[in-house]
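Training component of the fellowship. As part of building independent skills, the fellow (R.M.) carried out the full modelling exercise for a liganded target. The chosen ligand was fe (ii) ion. The inputs are recorded below so that the supervisory panel can assess the work.
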Amino acid sequence: MLYSPNKFKEADMKKTDATNSSIGLSRRSFLISSSAGVAWLAMGGHSGTAQAATPFVLPPLPYAENALEPVISARTISFHYGKHHKGYVDNLNKLIAGTEYADLPLEKIIMVTAGQTEKALIFNNAAQVWNHTFYWKSMMPKGGGEPPNALKRKMEASFGSVEACKKELLSAAVSQFGSGWAWLVLDGDKLKAVKTSNADVPLTTGIKPVLTVDVWEHAYYLDCQNRRVDYVNAVLDKLVNWEFALQNAT
Ligand code: FE2
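Fellow's submitted model of the complex:
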């Protein structure tokens, strides 16, 4: 299953928004019949005319649920995408309905609630919507392999080699205590491997995400049980979408 039309009616997601978002999450402001029309909507665009706040919608998976097998099973994706990711979208919509956040783009919600204890529920759900959308795009069927030359040069300049970059990503992923995320990020001109806990996302510290690996147990436990290292290694070797990373690293 790619996605249900009932979950997402606005055609596709595109990198369109003025904030140069990598995920392009839109709200259900109106239906769009062509992909070209989605530009306005990206990241919760608003028409400037009075209209009711519209909920966020679950972005489509960029591939079929079984497309990442055998590394990540369709069963894992069905729960991870269909239950966890969808749950964050649904929770966020409930939490922001009728509030000052109801009309804000997703990234704005994340930025203005970050670090505020009393807004933690909104932040956590908003950030998890963003993180998961970014995660699905960080992988592709038959991914991995050699990065594009432009990315390879950046990796070599920052880490010494592609293998060293992957090793640092693996280290960040494996050393994250409990739930969280491993990220390849762009900090100034330099690529770095970092980790965040729970829903935290590098965006809030002004660092640009390039690629991510979800290391919450729900991402790998059905397939790898406690072997997080096997899951991360397989993602980096066989699924990682280097072209997506390159788009974010420039
Ligand atoms: Fe997850």
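The panel noted the following from the submitted structure. The chain has a mean pLDDT of 84. The pocket of fe (ii) ion is lined by residues 80, 84, 132, 214, 216, 218-219 (CB under 6 Å).
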